[in-house]
Sequence to fold (146 residues):
Amino acid sequence: METISSYMTGDHHRCDNLFAQAESAASGEDWAAIAADLQAFLDAMRQHFAMEEEILFPAFEERTGMSMGPTQVMKMEHQQMRELFDAMAAASQQQDRDEFLGQAETLLVMMQQHNMKEEQILYQMADRMLAGETEEVLQKMRAVAA
Fold:
């Protein structure tokens, strides 16, 4: 049986691969390709955040009674990443490679730290706390991902 941890960790890898593709494209001169790769990454991240913020976090908070705990920290970090997404998009529109790569570097560090907290702590807790609801939660998250 698939777990919340395995599903969401797999989605982290999907997003990471799209990020690497967008960052790699920035070494070239084709700003249309850079913008397209960035958009694919941003769409994936927004979808990932929606799965967490609309489905997983509320289910976890309801089950545990913790609304100001780990999910609150993750939501705050999501907002910080959204600001970096906007900065990267602006740099792409302005065709400013140095700004784009600088924002990408900051985002990479933040995503690595964020993903580690989710994968090693929050998702593991969710697996335990939502054990009886795993399939229902996964179905709802897949519906967001569709």
About this structure: The mean pLDDT is 95. The CA atoms of residues 35 and 92 lie 6 Å apart.
